[in-house]
Inverse folding.
């Protein structure tokens, strides 16, 4: 399992992690994040966190394909 914690100067905090498991004939990636942010930054922060999560998924898929 790989995890991390990011805290920005604006009070945005993201705890994230993913786990890679072998399953018969395939691989399963379980990815999660927990976001907290001041009210005015929540929607923007959530959009940014989703972009990072999608990019991480693409990179993991690229590495497995190689």
């Amino acid at each position: 399992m790989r995890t991390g914690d990011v805290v920005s100067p604006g009070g945005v905090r993201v705890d994230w992690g993913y786990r890679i498991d072998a399953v018969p004939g395939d691989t399963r990636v379980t990815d999660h994040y927990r976001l907290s942010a001041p009210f005015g930054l929540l929607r923007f922060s959530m959009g940014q966190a989703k972009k990072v999560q999608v990019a991480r998924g693409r990179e993991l898929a690229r590495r497995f394909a190689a």
Q: What stands out?
A: DSSP finds one helix and three strands in the chain. Residues 2-60 form one domain. The radius of gyration is 14 Å. The chain has a mean pLDDT of 89.
